[in-house]
Amino acid sequence: MDENALSCLLRERIIGCEICMTAGDTQRDDFSGPYIKHPTSSIQHRASNKNYKQMKNLNKFLSLLMMLPLVFHMGMAQKVPLEQGKSYTLLGLGDSITEGGNNFSSYLYPLWKKLYLGGYQVEFVGPNQADTKIGGIAHAGFSGRNAAFLATNIDSLYRQFPADIVLLHAGHNHFTEENPVEGIVSALTSIVGIIKNVNPEAIILIAKVIESGKLPKYSYIPQLNERIEQMVSEAQQSYTEIYLVDQAKGFNWKEDTIEDKVHPNASGAAKMATIWYEKLETVLEKPSQSFNPTLAVYKKTVSEELQLHIFEPSDKFKNDQKACIIFFFGGGWKVGSPLQFYREAAYLASKGIVAISADYRTAFENGTTPIESLQDAKSAIRWLRKNAQKYGIDPSKIAAAGASAGGYLAAATGTVEGFEEPEEDHLVSSRPNLNLLYYPVLDLGPDGYDLVEMKEVYKEISPYYAVNNDTPPTLILLGTEDPYLSVENAKHYKNKLNSMGVGGELKLYQGAGHPIFYYRKSPSEYYELMLHETETFLNKHNYLMK
User: Fold this and answer.
1) Residue 218 domain-assigned (yes or no)
2) Residue 458: which H helix or E strand, with range?
3) Rg of the chain (C-alpha set)
4) Does residue 299 form part of some domain?
5) Using CA atoms, how far apart are residues 159 and 152, in angstroms rounded to an integer?
6) pTM of this prediction?
7) In 3-state terms, what secondary structure has residue 8?
8) Are residues 305 and 213 in the same domain?
9) Which domain holds residue 213?
């Protein structure tokens, strides 16, 4: 096959209706759908020790190959110059202390948050999922299992999830009467050797385990931690990238565990996350950027204070009145975090716009429905208008953006009447001046997202049925295989906007599902092209500084 034929074949995969693009990954949103916990017996060998590096190099080559048509179509001059550091995969390996539970915390979410804020691009992997406020976080923690169990299963497990980084915390689930210390150390040594045999470049952090007040059962742990330190020192003579992490230091079971005196509470999980993070900072490549937005409370509810995460432009725009964009995260109104849009907000702030990622109530943390989420979104926009002068914002240039459920919120603030907080000043408008919708939910009814709890009010609360003359100009970025918004309905929505004299634009991505990109994974070429469309739309409406 010659070069032109290869180019044509690849381009066939990515020709969209209005822009040439694909998403590669068409599985459901990080936040939507059930999380399947795979039993250990289901772990299969995906790679042999012989071909591990070959597979890794082949994947890199194929990824680069699939980028070629995008370069042919878009042209290098149109590419958005995002700073990208090295990306990593991470496997949390251990027992229930890694896994977490219904009544106790795991270090997984607070560690993920620290890494994300620090600018590290780390994807957590593993056969299991821990339920958190951002959805499932993958791991290899096995409740009730010990180090010997992990040693028996690590070969198949690690071949299926050959992570760049392994965090190993194992030593519980024995009785002191067993005299288990040497057996545990032997198992940990075996785990390290098997991982290094599969992937010599793996970074392995081995923890001195947290101590427990459940005595005499766990009275062997101080002795175990001394032996773990010795074992790590010995392993470092044979392997590179082996590090000791002292999780026992500063951990006080009287303050940092739940009533069982074993499993971490929120404080204990946060301490473990901090210890892991501090060591990771010393061994990982320094990221190109980190995030430190200004936090401002825009609303107080019965259960919490809701904040705006504000990214302000540099001092060179200090004396200018600036446009503003506010992002709402996705997650099916059930889970999610304002951190989802930190990358976009930081980038757009560099273009002279005040960029904000908003928190709002979700079912996971508040037991709420989309109605409360919409009330919060409207409150956020109203608060911005009332406080526009403080942040140098032009109150007539507020754009609302979001993905999935967040795209619904952005669209609903521009279309749906009512659903306001009764005690707020309704003379200050909660309607944005511009909408940017990434694979949004526009219809909560049976022909759209089909949300059962909204079946009585779906027409009143769905943007699809609420377009009016005051709806702001709108950009929709949508995959042709999106299960919640059909291409036909998206075109109908755009046409309704245009028929009312409101500018409506629709960009379709052939073969892409829902979502089109994952914020917990490294930005792809497709993501950069979507950001390019965002920037173009904002420039068209004079929202960015020249």
Assistant:
1) yes
2) helix 458-461
3) 25
4) yes
5) 13
6) 0.82
7) helix
8) no
9) 87-283
